[in-house]
Amino acid sequence: MGVRRLHWYNPCMPSRSRVYRTEAVILRRINLGEADRILTAFTPDHGKLRVIAKGVRKPSSRKAGHLEPFTRVQLLLARGRDLDIVTQAESMDIYPSLREDLGRIGRAAYVAELIDRFSVEGEGSRDVYRLVLETYERLTSSVDPSIVMRFFQVKLLLSSGFGPELFRCLKCSKELVPEDQYFSNMDGGVYCAECGRLQRVGLQPISVDALKMLRFYQRSNYAQVSEVAIRGRVQREIDALLESYLHHILERSLNASRFLRRVAGE
User: Fold this and answer.
1) Nearest CA to 202 among 213, 215, 191?
2) CA–CA distance, 50 with 26 (Å, rounded to integer)
3) pTM recorded for the entire structure
4) How many whole angstroms separate alpha carbon 16 and alpha carbon 28?
5) pLDDT tens across 72-82, in order?
6) Domains, the chain, ordered by start
């Protein structure tokens, strides 16, 4: 299924305006008091926002169905003393199939959790925002979800400035030759076989096949990577390496990763 063209509102407002509009994806929510919720939303121009939806848990609330996690929504916000306040909300895409089974719920939550960890309040990124929307679109289709998630991880790392060096040795700077190498989470890239054997501490092996595929994902678009099948052994190696690297960057494991492993029975 092709990804339809995505449009969002581009706010042009005076800096002192009390009310403003923005498109957003709802990442998560926390109940507050008896009727309110604090929402974490990711926007193309304002980055991550923490906002409050007052009275949204009341049965009479008209905003509740528009503010569910993994929903693309148009928000009207009023500036508040501590948190901005949701005054209007209109859903644009609710991605209902993301909630059809535990696997899709887990993958959607994984995307939301990674974006929450990588994004910064006040620092928008239209590229990352588009990546999130396209990822949710792809997860609703029948394509291989492992390709969707791997592509999301690689492109998020690149967009966030954490893309690993995969073409030259981090120590000697020589161009990497087609052979098994070593990967460093701490240094964010690959050591050639010779330099890796000398250092070893803090390094993990990376096969030439896994390195080739990671390079391919870095420099290719989704249409290109979706046409290439990866052998099971190489796929497991790549996924474990990416998860380890993300864990190192974030200095913690992801709740959604543990949930997905339980769903898979690992």
Assistant:
1) 191
2) 10
3) 0.89
4) 28
5) 999 999 999 88
6) 20-94 (2.40.50.140), 96-266 (1.20.1440.120)
Question: What tens digit of pLDDT does each residue of 30-77 get?
Answer: 999 999 999 999 999 999 999 999 999 999 898 988 999 999 999 999
- For tokens 């309040």, the residue is 121
Residue 79, helix vs strand vs coil: coil
Give backbone dihedrals phi and psi of 50, rounded to 5 degrees, phi first.
-110, 120
DSSP codes, 177-210: PSS-EEEETTTTEEE-HHHHHHH-TTEEEE-HHH
Q: How much helix, strand and coil, in percent to the nearest 5, is found in the chain? A: 40, 25, 35
Burial of 156 (0-12, 13-18, 19+ CB in 10 A): buried
In degrees rounded to 5, what are phi and psi of residue 182? -130, 140
Query: What confidence tens digit (pLDDT) does each residue in 189-211 have?
Result: 999 999 999 887 889 999 999 99
